[in-house]
Design goal:
alpha+beta, 3 helices, 8 strands
């Protein structure tokens, strides 16, 4: 896939919600990052960033005004040893592959 004209490794993750970027990849691209904080169910504050995003994957284009940016070391694929640059979740794929088509 291409992010900002640069090749990157994408992972389709059913446990993810939408599209997010790996922090190190966004920094390598030199994208502006805006710090954010989210409170999880335990009440713990979790820091992350957001950035505008345009991702092309073959004929598909995904754009977000504020895609989430996270450190993805915990998402390393145990078989390949690779860490994705972009994680694509079901919400991002819904307009391309409606759930009623996937369920059939």
């Amino acid at each position: 896939m291409k992010v900002g004209g640069v090749d990157g490794l994408a992972l389709i993750e059913t446990g993810a919600k939408d599209i997010s970027l790996r922090l190190e990849f966004a920094r390598r691209l030199g994208w502006s990052l805006t710090a954010r904080t989210r409170y999880v169910a335990t009440g713990e504050a979790v820091s992350y960033h957001v950035t505008p995003l345009r991702v092309t994957l073959g004929p598909f284009i995904f754009e977000r005004d504020a895609a989430e940016v996270w450190p993805f070391q915990q998402l390393m694929d145990p078989l390949s040893g690779l860490i994705p640059d972009v994680v694509i979740g079901p919400e991002a794929l819904a307009p391309v592959f409606p759930m009623n088509l996937i369920e059939q």
